[in-house]
Amino acid sequence: MKVTRAIVRRPGRSIVSGLSSSGKTVPAYEKVLEQHHQYVAALEKCGLRVQILEAIEAHPDSTFVEDVAVLTPHCAILTAPGAVTRRDEVATIRPILEQHFPQIETIEEPGTLEGGDIMQIGHHCYIGLSNRTNRSGAQQLIDFLKKYRMTGSTVPVKNFLHLKTGVVWIGGSILIAANGAIPQGEFQNFETISVPADEPGAANCIAINDKIMMPAGFPQTRQLLDQVGSEIIEVDISEFAKIDGGLTCLSLRF
Ligand code: CIR
């Protein structure tokens, strides 16, 4: 699916209070802003028109816009984040998506679902069942997809925040995955590039049309990706990584 646009949200100063699995490292705000700027520039280099939303200080994690919606060629689906502190972010993205999508659907509680758990390949969505996405959320998504002649199926997620923290699709029948991100028996029809064990953070790349954005600082993975033949664009997102943010989660692309 060719994508032409992206939506991002500027990080606010409150990002220092964003949810963090380690609880140990705090992003440095000036660096966060610079890295976000570079991230937007990389999306533009991929040919996307980028809509930049204002920061919302009341929502520390709101720069991770990917988690609040799932965008398909036929509709936008607002999610129900499993992280309770992130639930109110959804209402802030609705009016933006209404500018672009005539059809908007909504995942309802007790369902939970975050966009980071959705790996969309053509008309199929792989839905990670994680600490943030539950069976009810996944089933609601599958039902919406059916309505638009798409399909969905679930995949267990262990040891990673979201499905796409550990595995992403980078075009054709190729996935890139960190150790342990692909449960046995899943994704057998794909060829998988395995990220070296000491570079687990490298799996969260984004394929945009004929280019691949990858997080900077992973030289062995860079070598593997160079063999794919797409232009590779490295982006330093180390400040976002301090609170579990990756490349995909910083934008909604359609
Ligand atoms: C969170 O824990 O929700 C944020 N600190 C990071 C979200 C990252 N989202 C993603 O990978 N899709």
Structural class: alpha/beta
Low-confidence stretches at least 5 residues in length (pLDDT < 50)? none
Number of helices: 6
What is the averaged pLDDT score?
97
Provide the list of bound ligands, each named once: citrulline
Q: What would you say this structure looks like, in words?
A:
By secondary structure, this protein is α/β, with parallel strands linked by helices. It has one domain: L-arginine/glycine Amidinotransferase, Chain A (5-stranded Propeller). The chain is built from 6 helices and 15 strands. The strands form 5 sheets. Strands 2-1-15 form a 3-stranded mixed β-sheet, with helices on one face. The radius of gyration is 17 Å and the shape is globular. Citrulline (CIR) binds next to loops.
Can you summarize this structure?
Helix content is 22%, strand content 24%.
List keywords for this structure.
single chain; 254 residues; alpha/beta; L-arginine/glycine Amidinotransferase, Chain A; 3-stranded mixed beta sheet; 6 helices; globular; binds citrulline
How are the SSEs ordered, and which strands pair?
Elements: E1 5-9, H1 29-45, E2 49-53, E3 69-71, E4 76-78, H2 89-98, E5 104-106, E6 118-121, E7 124-129, H3 135-147, E8 151-156, H4 163-166, E9 167-169, E10 174-177, E11 191-194, E12 206-208, E13 211-215, H5 219-226, E14 231-235, H6 238-241, E15 252-253
Parallel strand pairs: 1-2, 4-5, 7-8, 10-11, 13-14
Antiparallel strand pairs: 1-15, 3-4, 6-7, 9-10, 12-13
The protein binds citrulline.
